[in-house]
């Protein structure tokens, strides 16, 4: 499972020395992986205590960035605890789900890049 944490990164100073930048993904690092795809969606979501994201899959490269709360991310048959600052990569067509732990909600930012030729997905049923 590919989970990258900001706490593991040293900032680089960019924009003429005015801005510290923490890279989860370096420029063009994912070019070959996502070549020919398109931005499918960008959103934020929250899973309430006791809830869970229903296990599902879709033809996208998807990333969850944990903004607040803690949870257990499941991709295929692998579980991993995630926390604020973690960026989770979900490969296309992998079954995945997320549930909060620790008594509170988990709030994430999500973006997805569809694979070339992907058919539309009905996210209301996923």
**Helix percentage:** under 10%
Low-confidence stretches: none
What structural class results from the helix and strand content? mainly beta
Largest sheet: 5 strands, antiparallel
User: Care to count the β-strands?
Assistant: 11
CATH-assigned homologous superfamily: Jelly Rolls
Helical run tally = 1
What does this structure look like?
The chain is mainly β and 126 residues long. The mean pLDDT is 94. The chain has one helix at residues 31-34; strands spanning 2-5, 12-14, 19-21, 38-47, 53-56, 60-68, 70-75, 78-82, 86-90, 96-101, 106-114. β2 (12-14) and β3 form a beta hairpin.
List the topology elements.
Layout: E1 2-5, E2 12-14, E3 19-21, H1 31-34, E4 38-47, E5 53-56, E6 60-68, E7 70-75, E8 78-82, E9 86-90, E10 96-101, E11 106-114
Antiparallel strand pairs: 1-9, 2-3, 4-11, 5-10, 6-9, 6-11, 7-8, 7-10
């Amino acid at each position: 499972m590919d989970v990258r944490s900001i706490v593991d990164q040293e900032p680089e100073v960019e924009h003429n020395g005015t801005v510290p930048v923490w890279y989860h993904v370096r420029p063009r690092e994912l070019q070959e992986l996502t070549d020919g795809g398109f931005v499918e969606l960008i959103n934020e979501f929250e899973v309430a205590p006791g809830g869970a994201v229903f296990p599902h899959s879709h033809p996208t490269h998807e990333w969850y960035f944990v903004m607040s709360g803690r949870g257990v991310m499941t991709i295929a048959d692998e579980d991993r605890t995630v926390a604020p600052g973690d960026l989770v990569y979900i490969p296309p067509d992998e079954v995945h789900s997320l549930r909060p732990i620790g008594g509170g909600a988990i709030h994430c930012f999500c973006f997805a890049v569809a694979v070339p030729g992907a058919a539309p997905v009905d996210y209301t049923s996923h």
